[in-house]
Amino acid sequence: MRVVSYNARGLRLGQSASDKARRIVIDQLFDSADILCIQETLLAKQDLERLNSVHNDFYGAGESTTDLSLGLIDFIKKWVCSRHRTSVSVRRGSMFYKSRRSLQNHLEFIYRFSQGLRMRQVDLIEDAVAASSRTLTKMSSTLRKVCIRAIHKLRTKGKMKVGGRHRFVMLDESKFTGRNQYNRGRMGPVWRRNKKWVFGILEISRDTRRPILKIVRNRSTDQLLPIIHRHVRRGSSIVTDEWRAYRRALSEEGYDHHTVCHKRNFVDPGSRCHTQNLERAWQTFKCDVWRHRGNRTTSLLKEHLRVIEWEYWLGRCHRYGVLGRLLHDIRKFNVHECA
What we know:
Elements: E1 3-7, H1 17-21, H2 24-32, E2 35-39, E3 78-81, E4 86-89, H3 103-114, H4 121-126, H5 133-156, E5 168-175, H6 189-192, E6 197-204, E7 209-216, H7 221-231, E8 237-241, H8 249-252, E9 256-260, H9 276-291, H10 298-315, H11 321-331
Parallel strand pairs: 1-2, 5-8, 8-9
Antiparallel strand pairs: 3-4, 5-6, 6-7
Helix pairs in contact: 3-11, 5-10
């Protein structure tokens, strides 16, 4: 008699094609074992009866570690006060409070969020990160709040300033609302809203790129100049196109202003100045926003722009990378401050 023990790490008991594909290893063990002991920590009590349907030649029986009445595991950890006989969840005050997902699911989603969430929600659901797209949306929204809170603290300290010696600052504007080619496709509420411009400031140095992205009503001098004063140091070298809002205003305010005429050249033949770094960055920023459907509303677009700023200002500068900075900000995150 051959007895085999196997740690399933996400046992699928369904009969769909995707569930059967994830049970290939277990099906092979059934062919070579007389008794198969499967370890699955998160197997719910109501799923125990479905163990009999995994294989026709085997009888399934087991105990659920998520059943608190058995005493095998205290699935929801709590702080208990012996004096007042009260208990409080250890997740209270953190981003995991009132969440039914396990910490393992949260950590896996945090890792994928730090990598850019390049997988579809369907793939994340199949990998058992979450049970529905609604849960994934809530988890994404919570992590965006973490990033927004961190970048807001940096801005309130007055550290989000660009420019200076040996640094060039590029200015440009772009629309993130999208455009239907040849007037085809649906024109729903997403595109009927007030279309606004995104004003971009990009600092170029030898090793870093630091963007500042602001939603503005229009591209006039009255809208753009206060933002430049707030975030660009006086005396900095600024490169722009020949948009009329920049022509005299920047030089009169004490900036070293260089221009390039995009109607004639992408790189100015005399000064060799260009805005190609920011033009290329627009494509990267828009791909991130459109992939996450972040341009549906103005408030949602603003959140995604803050996350982009967080990635370049804080995430990539951390010694442990974007994931290390994200875990650092999660540790300092307080639900009550951001409610």
